[in-house]
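Troubleshooting log. The previous run stalled partway through. Resubmitting the same two chains, unchanged.
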Amino acid sequence: MMRIATYNVNGVNGRLPVLLRWLEETSPDIACLQELKAPQEKFPEQAIKDAGYQAIWHGQKSWNGVAILSKHEALVERGRVLPGDPEDLHSRYIEASIGDLIIGCLYLPNGNPAPGPKLEYKLGWMERFRKHAAELYAGGKPVILTGDFNVIPTENDVYKPERWVDDALFRPEVRAAFQKIMKQGWTDALRKIYPDETIYTFWDYFRNAYGRNAGLRIDHFLLSPAVDKRLRGAGVDRDVRGWEKTSDHGPVWIEID
DNA sequence: ATGCCGTGGAAACCACGA
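Second attempt completed without errors. Output:
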């Protein structure tokens, strides 16, 4: 059995004690991180290494930033940009081969305020991602696309859907773009394991959102058929969201054979 | 109904996040 996790850390250096504690306590074999908020040279490489993980990452000053960590198996980078737009300089995608798996780690644009240029950027990014996902899917290999999608897929994935209809995370065109990707044949791992449950991965810092369980499900695992048939479990490390100096996201994980 | 909180970078405020 193998555990693969995704975690939007909201600042990898500010979050380092929480990140290291989580790695120690849950010991994922592979961890995908988003929102490093650190330039390439400020990634805490040594601390991650001392925790037992090799890593590849794509940093950026102040914002964005993605990383893939592996505890046991060698990491072979396949790319660190989402294809399709040489002018897009945001560090929002990194991809690796680990054993027989292809892992894509993504931090999809937020899109707010919407409507506006940020929503257009998000929709353009999703279209590029759809094309890349289609190529990976067609390859037939075991592929996992995971990270912070900044998409609330359905009204069952948000505490008060009516308040989010105009938001870039839940607007009809954004949900439609997500569904268009899913229709390629990907499995939403968390929904497969928990078909009807209320399950969130993000809670705002304010208004006691975590205490009230006023959350969103926006961090996802998309599995190709070759991984789907190996899926044995999934969950959210919900307690981590309650730790001191924690991220506004909780880590999400799957287990596969 | 709302960045009310949090992070990083630069400059004692601002951009950004969801």
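Takeaways: Residues 10-11, 13-15, 35, 37-38, 61-63, 110-112, 150, 163-164, 167-169, 202, 204-207, 216, 218, 245, 247-248 of chain A lie near DNA strand B (CB under 10 Å from a C1'). The mean pLDDT of chain A is 97.
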